[in-house]
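Researcher: Go.
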Amino acid sequence: MSISDALVLWVDAFFISPYAFSSFVALKEKKLPFELRLVPLHEKAQHAPDYRDRSLTSRVPTLAHGELQLSESSAIDEYLDESFPDPAYAPIYPRDRKARARVRQIQAWIRSDLMPLREERSANTMFYERAGAPLSPEGRAAADKLLRVVDRILPEGAEHLVGVWCIADSELSFMLHRLILNGDPIPDRLRRYAERQWQRPTVREWVVRERPPFAPY
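Model: Structure:
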């Protein structure tokens, strides 16, 4: 697959979407040149006809590559890994089939579960104003589930889930930082893992970038 066709990634204007984060990191890990465009979700720009028709699902991120226009971050990540494979481009999924299946399982899970945690420790509490209330029983249960799963799948003493870095490491770090940045308790082992991932250069490009004042949406 050639990169002669320009790559364009549409992300949220506040740079807080965990899904836009995932595809941004994927592109950066592969060192692919791409144009970044912003979608002001607080202005409902995702529902404007031009973006709606491009995205299909009216969500961020959306990737354009030549004639292909693709939304949903896990689909984008897999497309990038298959279109720009190693050794020419750094892999974001492991080569081993079983390890790759585990990574896809984790990606699917954190996109479809843990809603109380995602609501009570929303991404804007990570990058703008911290949460002002303790977790509810439902939020605490979701946090406990997250911690239990990560503790179960992260090998003792390991820096990464599957021996080498993969996109799920960055996504899990994002989820764990919902707790870390809001001062919620997290076991030391998992904190160390999340904070190591948070320092990865491609992740830092997203984390430390300048952001405009936040507007709720």
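Model: The longest strand covers residues 7-12.
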